[in-house]
């Protein structure tokens, strides 16, 4: 029997409490969001949420490993944020490697992986590497830790390999179409040589690739050459939609690009759309899953006063839903206290969290990742927005594994002319007893805030504890504030 919930009015949290449209700048109209609960789509993979680290992170500091079985705070943080996939790679794994992990470092990594319940994508060195050394490492890992392995990549962003004996490119100008001149054919031949040697010694090995930045043609060529052979189980791409962090003209411009709508020619959504169209339909048609194994906002560690602001929380949440709704197997945000820019390690501006004296301090991006984890456990539902004058309003719906419906609303509208959204949510085909909400907000709804953000009214503490809670919806004239997001849980009978 099809029943209809005619209308539920929802809102966002402003600072510490619910605010009516009267207390915010609204445009006066009601925005309608319709969710089709009768036609669920694809299941969002349970391991969709991932992080990516430089391989140098595996090396001990003062004899202590970062990834280790007794790093309780980090294990708990992975659980709290919902991280299920751990990619180890970056420039320090390949063309800019100075010291690679030994077996003790590998043991510590996989002890952590088991405790944190994550699968590992591990990058083997190709440029300047030794095929037999890769064989020995892959065999050791598969002999001891096959249960924690997702797949091996061979080479990091090979399209950016140097083409001369002496690389004269500036450290922060080795990525991007104008600076990447290494030919696919050279990578193909070397990759096959390394892969063949590994397969001969490790018959149960699985590979992924090509692991290039924003270059769908390499993925197409890789699928053509290796997609049906050579133990390839996953197609991987990297994406930093904003390009080099050091080239951003101003924080305002950087945030504008990050939170732009689909109609903006130089906005982040257009970069996603372009990359997707260049390779993903081919992967899907060939039955090959694809994953963005290294992503973030701006490369070379991020953009100052942009990548570390609350804008990154809303962008990260939006970015994850965009790729989930386009069939990706997952995304891994590159993170860590330091990340590679060329051969240099720079403090990371875009990291999801940083090391603190008593654990780990979660940055805004981490809150976006957590918000996705709460609302994304299930199957995608169609959601349609009508009646809004705000092109930066998003709605994402999921039929939860618990049979509840979760709707995530993101208002990326910000600034002096930003307005709150008065929202009516219509669900067909399901009877619900009640609705609850959980808000993602920054202090005073400042998009430039770098601390003080909350989810469900709570911060994530340095020991990874989070006490966020659902709040029952009441009233019929409340709104979604600018520069905020809300997760709505509609409870089924």
Shape category: globular
CATH class of the largest domain: Alpha Beta
Q: Count of DSSP helices? A: 9
What count of structural domains? 2
Strand content: 25-35%
- Strand order, sheet with most strands: 5-6-7-8-9-10-11-12
Features:
493 residues; alpha/beta; Immunoglobulin-like; TIM Barrel; 2 domains; 8-stranded parallel barrel; 7-stranded antiparallel sheet; 9 helices; 25 strands; globular; disordered N terminus
Characterization of the model:
There is one protein chain. 24% of the residues lie in helices and 29% in strands. It is an alpha/beta fold and 493 residues long. The chain folds into 2 domains: 4-42 and 379-492, Golgi alpha-mannosidase II (Immunoglobulin-like); 49-375, TIM Barrel, CATH 3.20.20.80. The strands form 6 sheets. An 8-stranded parallel beta barrel has the order 5-6-7-8-9-10-11-12, surrounded by 7 helices. Strands 17, 19, 20, 22, 23, 24 and 25 form a 7-stranded antiparallel β-sheet that branches. Strands 1-21-4-18 form a 4-stranded mixed β-sheet, with no helix packed on it. Helix 5 runs parallel beside helix 7 and helix 8 packs parallel to helix 9 (364-375).
């Amino acid at each position: 029997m099809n029943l209809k919930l005619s209308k539920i009015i929802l809102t966002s949290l402003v600072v510490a409490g619910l605010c009516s449209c009267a207390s915010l700048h609204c445009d006066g109209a009601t925005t309608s969001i319709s969710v089709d609960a009768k036609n669920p789509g694809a299941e969002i993979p349970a391991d969709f949420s991932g992080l990516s680290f430089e391989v140098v992170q595996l090396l001990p500091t003062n004899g202590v490993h970062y990834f280790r079985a007794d790093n309780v705070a980090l294990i708990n943080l992975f659980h709290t944020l919902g991280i299920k996939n751990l990619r180890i790679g970056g420039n320090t794994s390949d063309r800019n490697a100075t010291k690679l992990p030994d077996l003790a470092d590998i043991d510590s990594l996989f002890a952590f992986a088991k405790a944190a319940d994550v699968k590992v994508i591990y990058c083997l060195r190709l440029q300047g590497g030794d095929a037999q050394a890769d064989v020995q490492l892959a065999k050791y890992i598969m002999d001891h830790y096959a249960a924690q392995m997702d797949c091996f990549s061979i080479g990091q962003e090979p399209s950016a390999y140097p083409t001369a004996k002496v690389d004269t490119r500036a450290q922060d100008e080795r990525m991007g179409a104008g600076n990447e001149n290494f030919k696919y054919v050279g990578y193909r031949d070397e990759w096959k040589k390394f892969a063949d040697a590994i397969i001969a010694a490790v018959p149960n090995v699985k590979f992924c690739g090509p692991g290039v930045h924003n270059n769908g043609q390499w993925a197409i060529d890789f699928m053509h050459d290796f997609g049906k052979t050579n133990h390839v189980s996953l197609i991987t791409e990297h994406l930093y939609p904003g390009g080099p962090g050091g080239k951003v003209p101003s924080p305002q411009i950087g945030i504008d690009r990050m939170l732009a709508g689909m109609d903006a020619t130089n906005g982040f959504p257009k970069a996603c759309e372009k990359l997707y169209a260049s390779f993903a339909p081919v992967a899907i048609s060939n039955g090959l899953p694809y994953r963005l194994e290294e992503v973030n906002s701006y490369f070379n560690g991020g953009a100052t006063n942009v990548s570390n602001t609350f804008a990154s929380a809303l962008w990260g949440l939006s970015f994850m839903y965009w790729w989930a709704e386009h069939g990706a197997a997952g995304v891994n945000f590159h993170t860590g206290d330091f990340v590679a820019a060329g051969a240099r390690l720079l403090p990371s501006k875009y990291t999801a969290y940083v090391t603190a004296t008593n654990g780990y301090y979660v940055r805004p991006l981490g809150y976006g990742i957590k918000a996705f984890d709460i609302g994304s456990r299930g199957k995608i539902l169609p959601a349609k927005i009508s009646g809004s004058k705000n092109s930066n309003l998003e709605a994402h719906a999921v039929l939860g594994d618990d049979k509840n419906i979760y709707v995530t609303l993101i208002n990326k509208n910000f600034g002096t002319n930003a307005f709150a959204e008065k929202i009516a949510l219509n669900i067909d085909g399901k009877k619900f007893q009640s609705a609850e909400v959980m808000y993602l907000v920054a202090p005073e709804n400042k998009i430039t805030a770098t601390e003080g953000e909350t989810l469900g009214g709570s911060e994530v503490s340095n020991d990874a504890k989070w006490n966020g809670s659902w709040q029952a919806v009441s009233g019929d004239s409340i709104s979604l504030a600018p520069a905020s997001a809300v997760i709505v849980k509609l409870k089924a009978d």
